[in-house]
């Protein structure tokens, strides 16, 4: 065979392999490696800090516990306030806003939302907050962190790989961040479909799928093939069970919707405080009220709430009204204080406590299933992502026998929440910022770090 024929055959195979499209996958895989490594370290340190906060409040004098709580909640607000203000709050609104902006025109604004400086500040401030017992989660920050890492690597890659939108990197980063935070690859894909991309997912599904798969493999390699929660024992599902699942879903979905409305009101209320002295006084007041709750009412209000969920599902514990009160008040006070930390895990903890108390009153026979239904319903009511909520809990627990009750819980909660509030808290924050940008210059807009 002559040399030209060999070259022709080689070119034919290269074209068949679509090497240019395959090459575009490389930066997504590199970003996945970086995001997975960061998420693993961040998650491990976060949960160690949460356990340290519980030890502090249980084994030291009340004055030391109070001082630690006030100081860490203050620093978790003050550090972002002085260094990178968009590092405050949960991180999800910042990611959603960045995903809506024009990468060509709004590069500096996107960096102010999910840039490297913001990521480093977010990690530090959220760890400090939970070290003092703050009722925040690591999942929302992980989404902002991962999307920022993907965006930065995407920026660099566009110099040598053409026709890849920076917005695609933000989307893939957010999906991978959720997958890494909960060890739920399907949950990451579902979130990309429901929240980040909606109707445009088909344009870049390959990149998102590979990013989530790569991140998931790395997380499972280093942290094991564990379930975020585990295998709860479930009783047989009967007609009565379905009736109670619908009941807790209606209740938790409605309260989840109101929870989002209250958070939005808090974001609007904080805009009235413009001076540093006012913000400091507000922060300290919130920190003190929060400490009163976790010290005198319920220690389950400490941290993101994963330990409470584990106690309810595996250690024979039952939630009390005090648990629900503290778990709801904690994230609200954290948002009012302006600290850095997520609302994802605290929302699941609220739903779990509600499901447990509902089960005690109406249907103790299937306690664990109602806890899971409560988590799905509250998260759906709060975030308006029923498919994501259902997939997350399904992947966390791997309970195939509860498949249909979980789906029903998500569907019922989605319906009831829309009747109270059409848009989710995150969508309202995002829309407010984007609407403000139509009136003001891009530099003048600053989304509230909630």
UniProtKB/TrEMBL annotation:
The chain crosses the membrane at residues 21-42, 62-79, 207-229, 241-267, 279-298, 332-357, 369-394, 400-420. Pfam families: Voltage_CLC. It comes from the Bacteria. Its main location: membrane. Signal peptide: none annotated. It is found in: Membrane. The keyword Transmembrane helix applies. It is a multi-pass membrane protein. The keyword Ion transport applies. Keywords: Chloride, Chloride channel, Ion channel, Ion transport, Membrane, Transmembrane, Transmembrane helix, Transport. PANTHER family: CHLORIDE CHANNEL PROTEIN CLC-E. This is Chloride channel protein. It comes from Bdellovibrio svalbardensis. The lineage of its organism: Bacteria, Pseudomonadati, Bdellovibrionota, Bdellovibrionia, Bdellovibrionales.
